[in-house]
Predict the structure.
Amino acid sequence: MQYYESETRILIIGSGAREHALGKKIKDGKPERRIFFLPGNGGTKTTGTNITHVSPSDFDSVLQLIMEYKIQLVVVGPEKPLVDGLTDFLRENSIAVFGPSKEASKIESDKSFAKKLMIRAGVPTASFKEFSRSEYQEALEFIEQHALPVVIKASGLAAGKGVIIADTVEEAKVAVTDIFENNIFGDAGDTIVVEEFMKGEEASVFAVTDGESFALLPPAQDHKRIGNNDTGKNTGGMGAYSPAVLVNDSTMQIIAEKIIRPVLHQMKMEGYLFSGCLYAGLMLTDNGPKVVEFNCRFGDPETQSVMEVIEGDFLKLLTDSAAGKVEPGTITYNGMSSVTVVTASSGYPGTFETGYEISGLDQLPEDVTVYHAGTNESEGKILTSGGRVLSITGVSRKGCLSEAIKKTYSAVEKISYKNIYYRNDIGEKGLKYSGD
C-alpha cells in the first residue's frame, strides 16, 4: 500500500451508485486522496477500499474505524444514518462530517414536519392535510371531497416509494387503506399527507450548504416510475439527466431566493441549522417552481448525472460545508450533458431475484461510466445483489442531450445479466427543451 505525504482520507457511508459517484468525484484522479466505502459494493473497490466488517448502524464501531483508519472527513450518503443521528454522534466526538443533524434530517424523514416548515418559511408548495392512523375514516371522508388526481404520501421514510398518485376516489381510498390497514409502508405510514396534485415538469436541485451560504449544483430531472412514459409504480429512480434544460438561469435564481434561502433561514431560526446537501424536489408549474418534497442528502440517480457535469474541487465543497464556510463559486457547470440509465432486476420495485453474473462491463465506449449499486463480487465475478443494479451514465462533451442519450443506451445494450430491466425513454422528455 502506497502512502502520500499529503494523503487525505475520506470515509463514504453507503452502498449505492450515489456513493460510488460521490467517491469517484471526490477522488478526481488524485492518488493522494484515499477513499473508503462503508460498506460499498462490487464496483466501489475500483475507486477505493470497501469496509464490510463494520455496520453503519453501530456508531461506536464506526467511530473506532474512523480513528483506526485516520479518516479526515466522513460523507454520509443515505438518509437512514442521518435520520438515526450518525452525524450528531460523530460531531460530538470531534469528527468532521458532511451531512445534516438528526433534527435537521426531519425535513425528509417527516413529510408532515416538512410541509409545516415550508408554510412557516413562506415557501411555495402544494396545499395539504395530514392524518394519523386513528383518523382513518376522516381521511377517507376528506378524499371523497378532494379534487382529482390526489397525492397520498407516507409521512415517514419509505425508500423513495411512499408516494401514491390516485386518479380516482376509489384508488385514493385503496391507497389509504393499504397504508393504514395493510401497513404497506410499516411505521413510515403512521401518518399520511394528502395533498393537491401539481401540474408541471419535475426537477431536482441540490444545494450544498453550511446552513447559511450554499452552492447550487446543475439541475437534474429524475424518472421515478418503473415503466416507460412514467407509468407503473414509483421506484427509487430509474434514470436521470443533467442539466435539466427546462430549468433556466432565471428559474434557478427563483429557486435559490424563494425556496432554498428561506428554508435554510427558517431552520436556523428554529434551532436546527441544516448543514450538508439540501435536495429540493420541485414541480415547475405555471405559477413558478413549487416544492414537491425536500430530502436531506444527494439524490439517486440524479447524483450520477450531476457529478459528470460539474468542475472544481468537489472535496473542498464538502469539507467547507462540514467546516461551516461554503463558498458558492467552488463548483461550476462544465458545459457537458449527461444521462443516467438504471438497470434493475426484473420485478423491482416488488419481488426480484439476484445472484446473476453481469457481463459486458469491459466493453463500454468512451465517455460512459458505470456506477454500481446492487452488485457484489464473488470469485472475480460481478453479481447482481439488489433491485437497482447499475447506473450507466454517458456524457456529451458538446452539451448535446440527444448525443448523451445515444451514448448511454449504446452502452446499456452491451450490459447483460439474467432478468435485466430498464426503461427505454430516459432523457427524452428533456429533448423538447434542449433544441437538439
